[in-house]
Design brief:
Oligomer: single chain
CATH superfamily of the largest domain: NAD(P)-binding Rossmann-like Domain
Shape: elongated
CATH class of the largest domain: Alpha Beta
Strand order of the largest sheet: 3-2-1-4-5-6
Number of strands: 14
Number of domains: 3
Helix content: 40-55%
Length: about 450
């Protein structure tokens, strides 16, 4: 098929590259001419494992190209996928749909024959139907169908997720739209992928519901971690016991400094906003948002405890600032409120992150940045682990401790064995969900 993907951001670019990989002729368009120029040169403007090499392969194979003209791309395509950003509105945390409305305005004049418009952007229920009405208003004679096809890509493993989906959700209402989506995803139907075929609103809500549920699991395990610290339990033992229950499962039960990124915070808040708009209070989602913010601030208290009090003038090595490993994304990263509070209290930060420096400098301009964890830790009074990059899991802990002025660590991702840390020479160890007396802090 000839496919136009509108939006060369994270979702749009990954979708465009992977659709080309499975054999479609894809034209990815974006209004940002500098971004398009960068992509034409084979460079991806953000970090995602495998994406740049795969993009270069598909461009070389002439299955993938880039442009700035959405209207012309629509004319040349059978299917037009909208994958523009829908950021959070500042006031009520609902989705900002201005970019998707602009995309529709650019698509409508290009409908010169039958087209299927596919909304992949994350939107509140009812948006896809409204967009169809907008196209009909702009081009009354347009021959088109519309569909909702939400994405479920995880940053850091997006290529794998697209090529090996848990499920593909397709919201359509007509046979012509069904047929076009079946052809678009024929590669996956041949591989026995699970397809969820439903109406427009159900498909739209499936994305928000999934992210809301995953965010709730994280918020719950983090609240439970605080309880463990108070009563003398170990969250890792508790979580393992929970995860072995087949009704619960082990995923998203790792205690830490709270969730971040481009999806969980935004979509959970949007779920709350959608509920308010429809007079259906989403009380659990509201509590998840509140709990997550509280967890981030609680990490500051844990850091102060392991530091022994005042942070003024303390030299702190920070291991990781991106919201998760294998990405350069800083959106809603727990590191932002945590480290900002430390800086306010006079701490001196020495940060190392394999991909976070470029975007992290905007948030922490006064911090010192390092490529080497050992160099970052040398002469410091405390190490804080905020992102569980593989680089940090394999360090020589005794060498790390010996290089420090005061060997103390706040392992907020629980990537180290606490006994191994003590044997390595760390005098004070703090982890999430492990009682202070077990960490040697009482």
């Amino acid at each position: 098929m000839k496919v136009a993907v509108v939006g060369a951001g994270y979702v749009g670019l990954v979708s465009a590259v992977c659709l080309a990989k499975i054999g479609h002729d894809v034209l990815c368009v974006d209004r940002d001419s500098s971004k398009v120029s960068t992509l034409r040169n084979g460079t991806v403007p953000f970090f995602e494992p495998q994406l740049e090499n795969l993009l270069q392969d598909e461009v070389k194979a002439k299955r993938l190209a880039f442009d700035t003209d959405t209207t012309e791309a629509t004319r040349a395509s059978n299917v037009v996928i909208i994958a523009v950003g829908t950021p959070s509105n500042g006031e009520d945390a609902s989705h900002n749909l201005s970019f998707i409305d602009m995309a529709v305005e650019d698509i409508a004049p290009g409908i010169n024959s039958f087209k299927v418009i596919v909304v992949k952007s994350t939107v509140p229920a009812g948006t896809t139907r409204r967009l169809a009405a907008s196209v009909r208003r702009l081009e009354p004679a347009a021959d088109f169908e519309i569909a909702s096809n939400p994405e479920f890509l995880r940053e850091g493993s997006a290529i794998f997720d697209f090529m090996n989906p848990d499920r593909i959700v397709i919201g359509t209402e007509t046979p012509r739209a069904h047929a076009a989506l079946d052809e678009l995803y024929h590669y996956f139907s041949e591989r026995n992928c699970a397809f969820v075929r439903t109406g427009l609103e159900s498909a739209e809500l499936a994305k928000l519901a999934s992210n809301g549920m995953l965010a709730a699991r994280i918020a719950f395990i983090n609240e439970l971690a605080e309880l463990c610290e108070t009563v003398g339990a170990n969250i890792q033992d508790v979580a393992r016991s929970m995860g072995l229950d087949e009704r619960i499962g082990p995923r998203f039960l790792n205690a830490g400094p709270g969730f971040g990124g481009s999806c969980f915070p935004k979509d959970t808040k949007a779920l709350v906003a959608l509920g308010k708009e429809n007079k259906v209070p989403m009380r659990l989602a509201e509590a998840v948002v509140e709990s997550n913010e509280r967890t981030k601030l609680r990490m500051v208290q844990k850091i102060e405890l392991v530091a022994g009090g005042s942070l003024g003038g303390m030299r702190i090595a920070v291991f990781g600032v991106t919201f998760k490993p294998d990405t350069d994304d800083m959106r809603d990263a727990p590191s932002i409120p945590i480290l900002s509070r430390l800086l306010e209290n006079g701490a001196i930060l020495r940060i190392v992150d394999p991909q976070g420096q470029k975007k992290g400098k905007a948030h922490f301009p006064n911090a010192l940045w390092f490529d080497d964890p050992y160099a970052a830790a040398a002469g410091t009074d405390l190490i804080i682990v905020l992102t569980e990059w593989t680089l940090f899991r394999t360090l020589d802990l005794p060498a790390l401790a010996q290089s420090m002025n005061e060997p103390r660590i706040a392992d907020l991702r629980n990537i180290y064995n606490p006994e191994a840390l003590r044997k390595a020479g760390f005098a004070a160890v703090s982890q999430v969900g492990i009682a202070n007396r077990d960490a040697g802090l009482q």
